[in-house]
Amino acid sequence: MQQLQHQWETLIQKYSNNTYANHKLWTEITQHYTAPKRHYHNLNHIADLLEQAEQYREAIEDYDLLCFSVWYHDIIYKATRKDNELLSAEFAVERLRTLGITKKRRDSCYSQILLTKNHQAAGTKKDVQLLLDFDLAILGRDWEDYTIYKDNVRKEYSVYPDFLYKKGRKKALLHFLEREHIYHTNHYQNNFEEKARENLRREINTL
Questions:
Q1: Which of 11, 80, 170, 207 has its CA 20 to 30 A from that of 198?
Q2: pLDDT single digits (tens) 84-113
Q3: What residues make up the domain containing 110?
């Protein structure tokens, strides 16, 4: 938590010297991402994406903006809603407005977050493609890590009985398997695509 707060402060201090306002935004973020039903879409997820962003920093055109998109892309998350990405994007735009960030960059953040709904990025900039690959990186990791991920997602959807959850989950997994590529960038395709498809098929066989 302390390291994450330091990362947030390092980012936001470039745009605001109002210590009270900056801390208020941090408190707001932690309250959302540490809510009781946040088993996967929590601060651990944010930390994972930020770590990946740092690894690919030189390839990112607007690093600060991508980091803002990471921080806010799941700020609104309820398993029973279908507009989480839209609400998160709107939330982000309002916060970036208070920081004096230009409309062009706010619009870019809005678009980046919206695209995390379906993870389609045809014709988009490299920054968007990287953000979406960061968000789906968990799919291509070792089965042990993937199992923790899928079990935590199930906890977030605990409101649904198994027969409904399994049907919806299978549909979501097939959505990725039926695509030509799960990932958008060459590096993620070359290093994680095969493993991601193996994990998705393996989970489907358990449903």
A1: 80
A2: 999 999 999 999 999 999 999 999 999 999
A3: 2-204
